[in-house]
Fold this protein.
Amino acid sequence: MKKNRFQFAALIVFVLAFAGANGQAMFPEVTVNLAYPQYQRLKLDGGFVYIDGAGLKGIILYRANENSYLAFERACPHHPAANCVVQVDGSTLFMIDHCCRSTFNFSDGMPTGGPAERPLLQYRTELTGTVLKISDEVIN
């Protein structure tokens, strides 16, 4: 029980450290033009890219299908203040935090193994033509 309280307190401190003066998380709106070469991997279902400089520790942008893109926070919900980031596993079938060994699915970021009990934060995406906007509105 003490460990869970400590982890929750660490999460609160971590989130507050990234909060602006109005208490909102500092999240620069991210706009991705899918026609650009650096997003070539998103041309096929199951493709992904990492976006640095957004969210708390970066974003994993994943293509579910031609009209659906999912954006997941790379900070693990088990221990977000740790010096680790969630990555796509080499098999590209799931996401993993190699520090705590928590694994997450791509459908909604829910944990599928390891100590994490909460899903990855998922950000809202909006596709207009070839432009994808990722906003700070958290889905889960």
